[in-house]
């Protein structure tokens, strides 16, 4: 397995949109419900939808990475998870921690485009979910 493929599998992006849709759907639903009551331009709505989708995907991927880091000693004993990159040794633990930092930082960067309340709530959510 190539290193790129191993990182790709670590983030579960090879299973997209499974998992991601569980995070994206409520966010986009709430955005569109808010837009119904407080109309915004189509461009702004599309931009915000894309940012929600990207942010949700990054956050889901970060959650998958921290899950694999924490469960690496157990995943080898489970048929469904025994071939994950950290279990097989395709990736070092340090690489997973670096990837987690990159994903979390990218998600935090996206939050800088929101209002202060959303930013603080988002930071709490990231730290609560990832750590």
From TrEMBL:
Domain of life: Eukaryota
Principal subcellular localization: membrane
Membrane topology, record value: Multi-pass membrane protein
GO function terms (MF aspect): transferase activity, transferring alkyl or aryl (other than methyl) groups
Family indicated by similarity: Belongs to the UbiA prenyltransferase family.
Name this protein carries in UniProt: UbiA prenyltransferase
Keyword Hydrolase: no
Biological process, per Gene Ontology: ubiquinone biosynthetic process
Membrane-spanning ranges: 21-39, 45-66, 86-111
Cofactor(s) essential for the protein: Mg(2+)
InterPro entries: Prenyltransferase (IPR039653), UbiA_prenyltransferase (IPR000537), UbiA_prenylTrfase_CS (IPR030470), UbiA_sf (IPR044878)
Subcellular location: Membrane
One Pfam assignment: UbiA
Keywords per UniProt: Membrane, Transferase, Transmembrane, Transmembrane helix
Gene Ontology terms: cellular component: mitochondrial inner membrane
